[in-house]
Amino acid sequence: VSDKAWSGRFSEPVSDLVKRYTASVFFDRRMWRQDIHGSLAHARMLSQQGIITTDDLAAIERGMALICQEIDSGQFHWNLDDEDVHLNIEKRLTALIGDAGKRLHTGRSRNDQVATDIRLWLRDAIDDIDGLLRELQKALLTLAESHSDTPLPGFTHLQVAQPVTFGHHLLAYFEMFQRDRERFTDCRRRVNRLPLGAAALAGTTFPIDRETVARELGFETICENSLDAVSDRDFAIEFCAAAALAMTHISRLSEELVLWMSPRLGFIDLPDRFCTGSSIMPQKKNPDVPELARGKTGRVYGHLMALLTLMKAQPLAYNKDNQEDKEPLFDTADTLVDTLRIFAEMVPGIRVKSEAMAAALRQGYATATDLADYLVKKGLPFRDAHEVVARAVRTCESRGCDLAALGLDELRTFSPLVDADVFDVLTIAGSLAARDHRGGTAPAQVRAAILRAHARL
Ligand code: ARG
């Protein structure tokens, strides 16, 4: 009825609608290199085990080399009738080399084949992502180095809380991206296991050697159970979860960039090439890249939910549902890769407007905690000190001035413990320098943290 790989069983061809509905070739063909790589490893093993002849193997290698050229040069004809990347390549192989091509699928199923292809593809994607995260971390470190003592208002509840240095703030993102890399590295260990040999679900009657195939394809080990091997997509879900968290971090950074760039704060400026204008308001320069990254985070979260839902309640072993794993997975990787690439380029272009940061710091009583700490060091219990400073802040508020502007005599009316040395702690520089421990914002500590961060890259 047709020349599909499985049509022998059928009495009528599938309709065009069903063909389109069930085909995956237009999105899974991007795994062609992995598919050929996996097929060659399988064929070599078959020949080594005496399951196919060395002549067959030579023909398969020759045919696959040709197919690689055809695909690379855009000559390959991808055919919807052949469903997916696997059947498209196998069909072309058979057209090129005859019966040897038909022997390639011995002891194998598309079920273990596709699982192998995805794992190979994802392993490469993880390596790319790790490299890009590292690039972004390097860019953050370089910017942090130039701002290890640039004061920035640290916020809680989006209100001025305490002074931090801009470098210290950037190092917070370094840590987040470091954990992201750890997560991807951990996920990679579970990606890097070979499903091939599971065949459709139960294994195969041929005397295969899975360890050899695993070694040739660079897998750390093999999937132990054939049913699990063809039906597990945990590894893809883990990847999407790690990607979702990485995008969370990107999104938080994006939100800050947008806020910082708002003329209301004016803490930074982004290079024009990362912004766009408005078609109606001539004065606008919009931070489109961070806004889009923030938006794309939602799309990556959605893919994670899609994959979790895809796997929920699937009975063992393979079900065609699994074909739906690829688009969310690919789009997750693509979105993350593009986003990281653009951020690694954009971060070095951030122009820091330290005057605006300093001006904002003069407005929110950022050193109020320092004053309370000062009184504690003079012997006042912290709760009483808190109360004293709160009253001083209220006075400042009614007058619209800063704590330091009250002057020594007036400060003493709140507590006789205040001395002339109080102004050391009421300054921004004094406040920063006083947080002088590992993990603190003192410029000396930030510089030390940057050195340690370089060593961890
Ligand atoms: N295109 C399929 C997928 O992505 C390949 C496996 C098909 N196996 C099957 N029994 N129909 O999952």
TrEMBL record:
Q: In which pathway does it act?
A: Amino-acid biosynthesis; L-arginine biosynthesis; L-arginine from L-ornithine and carbamoyl phosphate: step 3/3
Give the EC number(s) under which this enzyme is classified.
Answer: 4.3.2.1
Q: Domain Fumarate lyase N-terminal spans what residues?
A: 8-302
- GO MF assignments: argininosuccinate lyase activity
GO cellular component term of the entry, any: cytosol
User: Which BP terms does GO give this entry?
Assistant: L-arginine biosynthetic process via ornithine
Give the residues annotated as coiled coil: none
Q: Has UniProt tagged this entry with the keyword Protein biosynthesis?
A: no
| Keywords from the UniProt entry | Amino-acid biosynthesis, Arginine biosynthesis, Cytoplasm, Lyase
The listed locations are: Cytoplasm
Tell me where in this chain the Argininosuccinate lyase C-terminal domain is found.
365-432
Which reaction equation describes what this protein catalyses? 2-(N(omega)-L-arginino)succinate = fumarate + L-arginine
Query: One Pfam family, short name please?
Result: ASL_C2
What's the superkingdom here? Bacteria
Please give the family membership noted in the entry: Belongs to the lyase 1 family. Argininosuccinate lyase subfamily.
Full protein name: Argininosuccinate lyase
Q: Which gene encodes it?
A: argH
